[in-house]
Each structure stands twice: as C-alpha cells, then as structure tokens.
Amino acid sequence: MNRIDLSPLYRSSVGFDRFGSLLDTAMRNESSSNGYPPYNIEVVGENEYSITLAVAGFDESELSIQTEKGVLTIRGEQAGAEDNGEYLYKGIANRTFERKFNLADHVEVKGAALDKGLLVISLAKEVPEALKPRNIAINGKPALVDTKAA
Is CATH 2.60.40.790 the classification given to domain 36-127? Predict the structure, then answer.
C-alpha cells in the first residue's frame, strides 16, 4: 500500500492529526470495497450534500442508517433473502450490505427518503455559532477581521 507523507501539512497546521488516519482508512476501504450498492455523493448547495444509494429490492424496514463518531453507516438486510428459484442468469443482487462514509466535522444527517429503489440521505454542514469567525480585540480595540473569507 502506498503511504502519503503528510509532514508538510503537520508543520503548518494544527488539529489535523486525524487527517492521516482518515486517508489511510479511505485507501484501505477503497481497495477492499466490492462496489455494492452503487452510490452517488452530490453537492446540493452551499454546505448541503446528498448521498444516493441504489437499493433496488429493499424496503424501509430492511434498511438502517446510523451515525456514530463521525461515521455514517447504511446497512441493508433482506428478511427473505433465500431464493430457491431456478435462474438461467441472476444479475440482480439481493444481498446484505454495509456502506460507511466518514463525515467532516459539523456535518449532520438531516433526513432520508426511499423512492423507486433509491435511498437518498440529506446532509448539511452547520457550524455552531461559537466556532464561526469573530473579531478579536487587541488591547481593547476591535481587530479588523474579514468574516466573509471563511
């Protein structure tokens, strides 16, 4: 596996220590991913995203969506997955799956909808007021900080 040298980033940045492990995890998952179910990640608007998974054959009761420690996990398990039919060709996958997505700080799941075999998960990045840019006073005088640059 190729390793990426992140030392230039660490020399000039603070708080990105988790970044290296995220890259390693992403590269490891990409090489072991089986590609099922297929998905899209879309930028819907400023600070708004959606993940769409093709989950044909699954209904709402067979799907679960969970977030924990910055990881979004989507699982699908069909109750009657055993099929004893005789097929000449079977190209429709009816199997259990688990897909994981790492979420950036302050990205929250806003909702999910299942329509025509597509599971659409809506996400939004909402930075708390306490973390937004603010002016810092120097010796009691307000500093000029461009809050539009962030």
Answer: yes
